[in-house]
Write a structure and sequence with these properties.
single chain; 113 residues; mainly alpha; elongated
């Protein structure tokens, strides 16, 4: 009985530092708050929508150059694509300025877009 108790005590003392290390928790968010996470998500969505609008602008340019030879309808469609892509880029730019102003000045969370 004493031999089993000695083995149990030795095993417990040997594993005690490993058990104590398991109690240390690290912050998985690196100090970000909910507003900071939402600001990062909105920033990524702005970048993604800007990229889509830029691709639409390039697509409209290709349609204007390549499809403009054949008919006036293709030229009108290409101009419409370019118009809406430029309007989308302007709206995305204004939205990023507004969100930057709100997040840094009013909320004070320091999100960089």
């Amino acid at each position: 009985m004493i031999k089993k108790l000695t083995i149990l005590l030795a095993t417990t003392l040997a594993l005690l530092p490993n058990i104590a290390k398991a109690q240390v928790f690290e912050d998985p968010l690196d100090g970000l708050t909910v507003l900071g996470i939402l600001g990062n998500i909105v920033g990524w969505l702005l970048y993604l929508s800007g990229a889509v609008a830029l691709l639409a602008l390039i697509y409209g340019g290709f349609r204007l150059v390549l499809g403009g030879i054949g008919s006036e309808q293709e030229v009108a469609n290409a101009k419409r694509i370019i118009y809406w892509a430029i309007l989308g880029l302007l709206i995305i730019g204004l939205a990023s300025v507004i969100l930057y102003t709100i997040s840094n000045s009013i909320l004070g969370i320091g999100v960089s877009l």
